[in-house]
Amino acid sequence: MCGPNALHAPQTIDALNAGKHVLCEKPMAISREEAKAMLEAAKKNHKFLMVGLNQRLIAAARAGEGNSGTGRLGKVLSFRTAL
User: Fold this and answer.
1) The pTM of the whole model exceeds 0.85
2) Cβ distance 11 to 18 under 8 Å?
3) Long-range pairs for 16-19 at CB < 8 Å and ≥24 separation?
4) Are 30 and 9 in contact (CB under 8 A)?
5) How far apart are CA 68 and CA 77, in angstroms?
6) Is the dihedral of CA 25, 30, 36, 38 positive or negative?
7) Side-chain half-sphere of 9: how many Cα atoms within 13 Å?
8) pLDDT per residue rounded down to tens, the chain (83 residues)
9) In sequence order, which residues have a C-beta less than 8 Å from that of residue 44 and are 6 or more positions away?
């Protein structure tokens, strides 16, 4: 399923209600309420809902995450990685 961030929740809920498992790319939703509605739809329909975090385990992302809280790099607002 593809769509802009603002449509992740409605598209996901529609697919779950149609009996489909869903892999949603991040961000899961644009609000906490939308995310909760997505989880409720998955539970109600007994379907899997996964959120794709495709770079969370690559070495560059892990290194950036590990250094972001140390203060060594200053206040990290964002970082980008590449394969």
Assistant:
1) no
2) no
3) 16/41, 16/42, 16/44, 16/45, 16/47, 16/49, 17/41, 17/45, 19/45, 19/47
4) yes
5) 9
6) negative
7) 13
8) 578 999 999 999 999 999 999 999 889 999 999 999 999 999 999 999 999 877 666 776 666 666 666 777 677 677 666 66
9) 16
